[in-house]
Amino acid sequence: MTRIMAIETSGRIGSVAVGVGSQLIAEQDFGAQLKHGAQLLPTMERLCQSQGWQPRDIDHLYVSAGPGSFTGIRIAVTAVKVLAFAQNTKIVPVPSLEALALNAEKAGQNEKLDIEQVATVQEAGRGQIFAAVFDRETTGAKEDSAGLVPGFRINIAQTMMMPTELLERTERPLYLIGEGLKYHHEELSPNEKDSQIVRLDEKYWQPRAANVYRCGLLRAQQGLFVTADQLEPIYLRRPEAVEKWEELHG
Q1: Lower CB count within 10 Å: N or C terminus of the chain?
Q2: Alpha carbons 177 and 109: distance in angstroms, whole number
Q3: pLDDT tens digits for 4-33?
Q4: CA–CA separation, 154 and 176 (whole Å)
């Protein structure tokens, strides 16, 4: 059976999950916020040890590739590249906002909500957001828009936009989820003119490695692997430090 590790570092709290084939065995969060560089490798090592695995035993690595925290994504992608180069491990990059959408499935079950449409939101800076929109998968969904996110059909693929654009491009009711909502409370909250905007409880906003595992497994089944050389973060825009350097140096 295929031994799999999934890594999530696109948000403030990181996590790692391991499993065999379709069976997720364990998931562990990092213990402190924004400490991905110090805690990712030790967490990976602990989970391997708990299963009696050596790094060479891992067959697939699924990584949340962005968008999200520039630093967190870069750390995870680098770690995956190093492991894959050393062990020839197969890699599946997972768009972070697609994996995050699975939190809405859990929210719907726990809160008894009929969630037909959900938007995942991460902060992009400069008044913008990284966002993607998903519809609950229904019988007869088109093959080209289904099959990458368990239980959902991609309506708007992850992109960068203004909060007002997200509201203009979506139907109602619209459920919202993701850490980006902390920064856009005024724009992305129900109001007198638009009462059918629903912010899911904050306990569902954290990205999870278990979701990366589920999305990565579907992609692996479709052969959507990349080599270590091909693996790149999905930033959607260049890091601010790069843009500032270019402004200073032309």
Answers
A1: C
A2: 15
A3: 999 999 999 999 999 999 999 999 998 665
A4: 15
The CA radius of gyration of the chain, in Å to the nearest whole number, is: 18
Element (H, E) at 98: helix 96-100
Give DSSP secondary structure letters for 57-88. Answer: G--EEEEEEESS-HHHHHHHHHHHHHHHHHH-
Helix (H) or strand (E) holding 247: helix 240-249
Would you say 242 and 103 are in contact if contact means Cβ atoms under 8 Å apart?
Answer: no
This prediction has a pTM of: 0.92
Q: Exposure of 146 by Cβ count < 10 A (0-12 exposed, 13-18 middle, 19+ buried)?
A: middle
Angle, helices 70-87 vs 36-51, to 10°: value is 40
Tell me the residue length of the chain. 250
| Tokens 């306990």, residue located | 203
Please tell me the distance from the alpha carbon of residue 72 to that of residue 234, in angstroms, as a whole number.
12
Element of type H or E holding 46: helix 36-51
40: Cα separation from own chain's centroid: 16
As a whole number of angstroms, the distance between CA 217 and CA 234 comes to 19
Task: Answer whether 198's CB lies under 8 Å from 118's CB.
Answer: no
Strand partners, 130: 122, 160
d(CA 85, CA 104): 35
Total Cβ atoms within 10 A of residue 172: 11
* Cis geometry, peptide bond prior to residue 150 (ω within 30 degrees of 0): no
User: How far is the first Cα of the chain from the last one, in angstroms, to the nearest whole number?
Assistant: 52
* Nearby residues of 61 by Cβ (< 8 Å), 6 or more positions away: 4, 5, 6, 7, 80, 83, 84, 89, 90, 91, 92
